[in-house]
């Protein structure tokens, strides 16, 4: 997670790392853009960091962007279609615990990033090849392989960010990386349907061949990510040699024995996380047909509105993160975000108001919840347990997404979209109940989850003084 007080301007030069042995005259004599201690070189590195995750996020929602085409060309029902999301999540139930270990102790961050980017590319190629061959089971294998690399690649991306920007512009860098990830999702939602239609015109008909070619074109973004991983590995190795610094570490020390010591507040945070996100990502995965059937949208309009959550999240996440940092009151912000998302789902379920209102509301509240919820983990567990806590949180989130993806497909096949929306509303209500319980449990136990930013700063200063 991004640290606090690290929001200095990206274009600053007062960070020449003069305290380090940076190869002295050699580093100072090279052009600024080639000097790893100079801001202009770090901007080059940052650009490759951003593109590192672009392909993964672009291809993750390929099924959502081509929902109608996948179901028709592969002759699936909705339950079978949602297996593509379930198979992505299954490996990450385990890899959330192992990914950081593999990056730190086995491969190293540079080789590990390249390996996981390769998994993403190979998984997407298998996925596209399964469509070309008309073999849905092969598409499922591809999504499983893709999932092995996807989440761990995000861990590697964050590790590179901390290694290059810690103590300088880390908050801004995390915000830019998140914005690029959302840009990848947005471009996918709005372009893959057009790509499919263009290929259909060239081939002369729809079908597995057209679908496979479209997905293979999508794999080019994963090739971009792999290229970025290779360049980052070279630049990081070069900086290590010039500046005599160590290779980056994820800092995710996982000890499963820590789980028994987790406080009640943390378990409530886990419940909020699972119950909230299972009403967002599966909905987006199924949203295109929903907007076509209920609101008579064209496929292009449906794809556009289905991407609104990601479009809003890209610029809103850094801004809302800054607001939450400055105000505190995390539990209240979480509760507000949950209520807003519940209102959005209820509008979609029970009204015929223009869905742009509901989707814009959902995009804003989705961004707000992420900014307020994830930092709370660091408030309730000691630092040495943070790796385990975040790993466990991601693990049960992926488990919930896998199970709910299958359940959502089955509900839609048997009961329709109205019943599915009621189901999503029920999940959001469970998250709201957990948030209310979290507020009172934290209050009774004298916790600091809902303190203002000023009060939390005074508390941290007092604790620091006492420890000294």
From TrEMBL:
Top-level taxon of origin: Eukaryota
Keywords: Lysosome, Membrane, Transmembrane, Transmembrane helix, Transport
Annotated localization: Lysosome membrane
Residues passing through the membrane, by range: 39-60, 81-103, 109-133, 211-235, 266-292, 304-324, 331-350, 389-412, 418-441
Domain Major facilitator superfamily (MFS) profile: start-end pairs: 42-445
Pfam families attached to this UniProt entry: MFS_1
PANTHER family with a match to the protein in the record: MAJOR FACILITATOR SUPERFAMILY DOMAIN-CONTAINING PROTEIN 1
Protein name: Lysosomal dipeptide transporter MFSD1
Origin organism lineage: Eukaryota, Metazoa, Chordata, Craniata, Vertebrata
């Amino acid at each position: 997670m991004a640290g606090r007080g690290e929001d200095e301007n990206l274009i600053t030069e007062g960070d020449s790392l003069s305290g380090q042995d940076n190869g002295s005259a050699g580093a100072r004599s090279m052009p600024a853009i080639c000097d790893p201690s100079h801001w202009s070189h770090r901007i080059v590195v940052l650009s490759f960091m951003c593109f590192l995750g672009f392909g993964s996020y672009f291809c993750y929602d390929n099924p959502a962007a081509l929902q109608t085409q996948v179901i028709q060309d592969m002759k699936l029902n909705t339950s079978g279609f949602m297996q593509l999301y379930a198979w992505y999540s299954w490996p990450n139930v385990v890899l959330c615990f192992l990914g950081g270990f593999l990056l730190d102790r086995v491969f190293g961050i540079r080789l590990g990033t390249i390996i996981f980017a390769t998994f993403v590319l190979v998984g997407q190629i298998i996925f596209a090849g399964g469509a070309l061959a008309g073999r849905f089971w092969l598409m499922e294998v591809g999504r499983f392989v893709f999932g092995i690399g996807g989440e761990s690649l995000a861990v590697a991306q964050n590790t590179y960010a901390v290694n290059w920007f810690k103590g300088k512009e880390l908050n801004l860098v995390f915000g830019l990386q998140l914005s690029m990830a959302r840009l990848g999702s947005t471009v996918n939602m709005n372009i893959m349907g057009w790509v499919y239609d263009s290929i259909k015109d060239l081939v002369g008909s729809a079908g597995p061949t057209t679908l496979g070619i479209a997905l293979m074109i999508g794999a080019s973004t994963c090739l971009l990510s792999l290229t970025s991983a290779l360049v980052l590995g070279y630049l990081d190795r070069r900086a290590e040699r010039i500046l005599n610094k160590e290779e980056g570490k994820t800092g995710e020390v996982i000890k499963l024995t820590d789980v028994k010591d987790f406080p009640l507040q943390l378990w409530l945070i886990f419940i909020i996380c699972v119950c909230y996100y299972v009403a967002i990502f599966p909905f987006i995965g199924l949203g295109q047909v929903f907007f076509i059937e209920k609101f008579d949208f064209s496929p292009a309009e449906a794809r556009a509105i289905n991407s609104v959550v990601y479009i809003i999240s890209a610029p809103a996440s850094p801004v809302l993160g800054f607001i939450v940092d400055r105000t505190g009151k995390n539990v209240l912000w979480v509760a507000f975000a949950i209520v807003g998302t519940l209102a959005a789902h209820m509008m979609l379920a029970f009204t015929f108001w223009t869905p742009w209102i509901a989707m814009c509301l959902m995009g804003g509240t989705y961004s707000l919840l992420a900014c307020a919820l994830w930092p709370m983990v660091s408030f309730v567990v000691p630092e040495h347990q943070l790796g385990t806590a975040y790993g466990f949180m991601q693990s049960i989130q992926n488990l919930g997404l896998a199970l709910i993806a299958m359940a959502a497909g089955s509900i839609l096949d048997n009961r329709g979209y109205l019943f599915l929306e009621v189901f999503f509303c029920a999940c959001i209500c469970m998250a709201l109940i957990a948030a209310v319980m979290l507020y009172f449990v934290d209050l009774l136990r004298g916790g600091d989850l809902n303190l203002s930013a000023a009060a939390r700063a005074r508390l941290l200063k007092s604790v620091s003084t006492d420890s000294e």
